[in-house]
Write a structure and sequence with these properties.
Blueprint (H helix, E strand, L loop, with lengths): L1 E2 L2 H10 L4 H5 L3 H16 L6 E2 L5 H12 L1
Parallel strand pairs: 1-2
């Protein structure tokens, strides 16, 4: 499982040029937080976890590869 905090998820969406989440709902960030919170029980079942908040893409890939090797 790859994880990151809600603010990181939000910034990733914006960096991709997608401004729709905020335009679609003034509460989009709150909704994202609630969605991630609701998924925590599922995420906690993962055999491995990688905190993507502190890693760039290459670092996350390397850490995942190391953990599954």
């Amino acid at each position: 499982m790859a994880a990151g905090d809600p603010e990181d998820h939000w910034q990733r969406v914006l960096k991709q040029g997608d401004v729709r989440p905020g335009a679609a709902s003034p509460h989009a960030q709150e909704e994202l937080r609630a969605l991630l919170k609701s998924r925590e029980p599922l995420y906690s079942q993962a055999e491995i976890a990688v905190d993507t908040s502190r890693l760039e893409i290459d670092g996350a890939v390397e850490e995942i590869a190391r953990k599954v090797a």
